[in-house]
Amino acid sequence: HAEVNTLRRQLGVRIAGFDPPRPVHTFAQLGLDGALLAAIKRAGFDKPTAIQAQAIPAALSGRDVLGIAKTGSGKTAAFVLPMLVHIMDQPELEKGTGPIGVIVAPTRELSEQIHKEARKFSKPYNLRVAAAFGGLSKYEQFKDLKGGSEVAVCTPGRMIDLIKMKACTMHRTTFLVFDEADRMFDMGFEPQVRSILGQVRPDRQTLLFSATMPNKVENLVRDALTSPVRVTVGEIGA
Ligand code: ADP
Ligand code: MG
């Protein structure tokens, strides 16, 4: 225990929640398979950032995760890597349609970055990563979703449009991520976020990341996450 606390102190990570798993020093300690480790190496990631060191083991253990960390801390891989493991663990991956992993981000630019990173890390598995955000053809996006992408990276408004067009349902979605939740609410997307939440089975795994924790985000955490592991990196204002 003393050793775990020392590592958390070195990382600048604070943790709360029931029985949190221990952080890791290295990607190798995460028990990922060789193909994914190789992709991480190719990306030039030598060792996990603080948020990754604590949030990835928590997510891999099946827990809901609240990650509070500022921009540039490596949050994308913190949710993309456990999401890929979750998807590859599905016994009936070949059956059914609709995304298994859904990542919701506030803007097209952020979604684009996440889409790129998700595609990069999913290459070893040949998973299909659909884009559902502005700036790209809605028709192409419709086809990708309808064709059975295992992952969807989206902005709230476009995802709801595509669901209304019957491009997909969220019946198969068991891993849901909200990135930059505070910005999502600043931009007025709370109704869309709540609508998406209402369409995903309650026994899903949910990860939520935010740089700040205003009351609205705390309320969403309470409504959307079950007994989360709460990981805070650095000093965070509300
Ligand atoms: P955030 O979402 O917290 O702003 P990103 O996930 O966008 O952070 O990561 C910021 C930058 O750091 C990106 O260029 C990303 O490729 C890089 N990065 C992420 N994790 C690592 C790591 N473990 N080692 C080296 N670089 C990393
Ligand atoms: Mg980010």
UniProtKB/TrEMBL annotation:
| DEAD-box RNA helicase Q domain segment(s) | 25-53
- Which ranges carry the Helicase ATP-binding domain? 56-231
Q: What is the lineage of its organism?
A: Eukaryota, Viridiplantae, Chlorophyta, core chlorophytes, Trebouxiophyceae
In its UniProt entry, what is this protein called? Answer: RNA helicase
Q: Which domain of life is it from?
A: Eukaryota
Motif Q motif positions after renumbering to this chain:
25-53
